[in-house]
Amino acid sequence: MLVVAVCTKKEYMTVALPEVCFTDSQWHCVDIVHTAGRRYFGQTVLSIYTDGCLYKTAQLRFPSLTEPYTYCGIGSAGHRTSTTVVTPTPQSAETVMVSRGSLARSLSFPAALAAPTLAPEAIVNTIPAGTQDAEWGSPTSLEGQLGDVSVFHEALQPPQLRVLHAAGPNNVLCIKPDGELWDLSYKLLLHYTPRACNNHMCLDLSPKHLYDGRLTGHSTINWDVKDGLGCVGGMAALLPLLEQVVTGGEEREASAESTELVGPELTARQNIPGMQLPLGKSSGNARSPWRVPSVSPAGVFPP
């Protein structure tokens, strides 16, 4: 089950997507889009896309980006969130009313005037920060295979997300200047791909190349047949190999025919040097010679 979580100093907010089932041994494209509110009091909208389709939206608070990042983990358990358990204290009636008003984010004035979406509005579950392990369990690393990872500094639109899904799992944005996704490369903050990993280092393929990562797992790369053929020299290197395979097959067939003509009793001995005889073939056909094992004259003429 996919769960998107945001942790602040006081709250741990989650949005779950239980209705989407991810099939084993099948590639899926997951897009998590945070759209900032356009108005001063507007709420940040979370949109979850799976395989190019919008499944759920929610008004989830997005953490502040004014401070620089010190750590970013993708697919790993990561560091423990430095928060403490907040013990609830008795509140007055006035304080309780204020807290209830702050939790009713979906009823705010800018949200009520927002354009309707096709995806259902998700429920945001909020618990005190520091109690997430008791609710969700201890954090663990991703148990599966992770393909290309891209982080954009701008929210992408649905047509762009559909193009990303249609590109497939073996798409590299930054090295295709003539491709349809070349415009998105200017919005990249970082981009990792297994093909750019070596010695546990993941090169950042974004245009600025600022955030090289460190791989803590194993990297597995599957190459296309055409890419593997290009590494060995292309068709110019493959055709001579095919010619050798065809020639070797003709030689084996010719050797079997010559064995039937001479007789099995003369070819029973092993590891005997052979000589080439045309046996009715033209002398100019030197590419497929007939091989006949050489025998001593005593084996041919009886005493």
What is the number of strand segments? 13
Strand ordering within the main sheet: 1-2-6
- Order of helical and strand elements: EEEEEHHEHEHEEEEHHEE
Q: What portion of residues is helical?
A: 10-25%
Quote the average pLDDT: 72
| Spatial extent as radius of gyration | 34 Å
Terminal residue distance: 89 Å
The largest sheet is: 3 strands, antiparallel
Count of helical stretches: 6
Q: SS-based structural class?
A: alpha+beta
Oligomer: single chain
Overall body shape: elongated
Approximately how much beta-strand content do the residues carry?
15-25%
Secondary-structure topology with pairs:
Elements: E1 2-7, E2 11-17, E3 30-35, E4 45-50, E5 53-58, H1 93-103, H2 109-112, E6 125-128, H3 132-136, E7 149-152, H4 158-167, E8 188-192, E9 197-198, E10 201-202, E11 213-214, H5 225-231, H6 235-262, E12 274-277, E13 290-293
Antiparallel strand pairs: 1-2, 2-6, 3-4, 4-5, 7-8, 9-10, 10-11, 12-13
